[in-house]
Amino acid sequence: MNQPIHLKSAGLKSTLPRIRVLNLFESSDEHHLSAEDVYKKLLATGDDVGLATVYRVLIQFEQAGLLVRHNFAGDKSVFELNQGKHHDHIVCLQCHRVEEFYDATIESRQNKAAAERGFTVQDHSLNIYANCIKPKCPNKPR
Amino acid sequence: MNQPIHLKSAGLKSTLPRIRVLNLFESSDEHHLSAEDVYKKLLATGDDVGLATVYRVLIQFEQAGLLVRHNFAGDKSVFELNQGKHHDHIVCLQCHRVEEFYDATIESRQNKAAAERGFTVQDHSLNIYANCIKPKCPNKPR
DNA sequence: GAATGTGATGTTAATGATAATCATTCCTAT
DNA sequence: ATAGGAATGATTATCATTAACATCACATTC
Q: Which nucleotide has the shortest C1'-to-CA distance from A7?
């Protein structure tokens, strides 16, 4: 009786694959995982889940508000637990490490810019691509 | 003798497909075009160019600094002429219309946020996903 | 201005990420 | 425990993009 609460209250039936995926996100130190990441990590721990199911569960979790999707470099999507507080991201081009930040001024000026032009903001994404300093950066494209 | 100047000075051999693609970007009212968009528009005008060539030319133009690539909704990339001045984008979720904006305060606060965390900014992208007002919005996913 | 070699092109096949299909299996309410 | 519908997994399909490779075009030399 770990996360079934979440699943139930999110309107999702409590199943083994869903519990496993949710557990993974809650226990992993890397908060940003792609479908492939999830699939491989579950394989590694013996908690096998089909790849198609991983994709489906991620979509369901996203729609249920449990996960948030990000499209960084363009090709593959990554997901992170939705902790309620919106934030933007800095992605290291070398090691792919992701750091989060929040700037209230940026947020408000975004909304202002959109409103001035007659747009109703639904969502927004701000990603900074950078190189992080040596000690922290293993310089390995994971 | 239209754009060959650009191509030459960009270190690119002046060829028919490249001239056609460049002309398209310079004459199109829609400034943001995907590879598929370019391919179809050239087909429509009879200026046939192979799809693979379109992809190659877009990459070359991007590397040469003639075009800038954006990854909006996640799946496909769109390109626009590089006019030198960086800007962010507001994308209408309904009609896919793209509007540009620039906010110096946002820019500086981004750099500040990255610097404070020990990152050397290489690039950044800020996209606002919104719905635009009726008169402007044909509400058609083009 | 024609030959020539390198680089560009187009067709087609391959790739990688993701979505759809469908038969089988698992929840949950009865 | 059982029935019924939703969830799963294996496989196949799809979509955007890239790779291969034989052919062809540009720019330069003669």
A: C27
pLDDT per residue as tens digits for the range A56-110: 999 999 999 999 999 987 679 999 999 989 999 999 988 888 999 999 999 999 9
Q: Report the distance separating Cα B22 and Cα B18, nearest Å.
A: 6
Torsion sign (Cα): B54, B57, B63, B68? negative
Choose the mutation target among A69, A95, A105, A117 for the interface with B, i.e. most B CBs under 10 Å.
A117
Residues of B in contact with A92 (CB under 8 A): 119
> How do strand B98-101 and strand A33-34 relate by DSSP bridges?
unpaired
Collect all residues with Cβ–Cβ distance below 8 Å to B104 and sequence separation of at least 6: none
- Domains along chain A with CATH numbers: 4-81 (1.10.10.10), 88-130 (3.30.1490.190)
Nearest residue, CB atoms, B117 vs list A99, A110, A124: A99
Structure tokens at A51: 């790849």
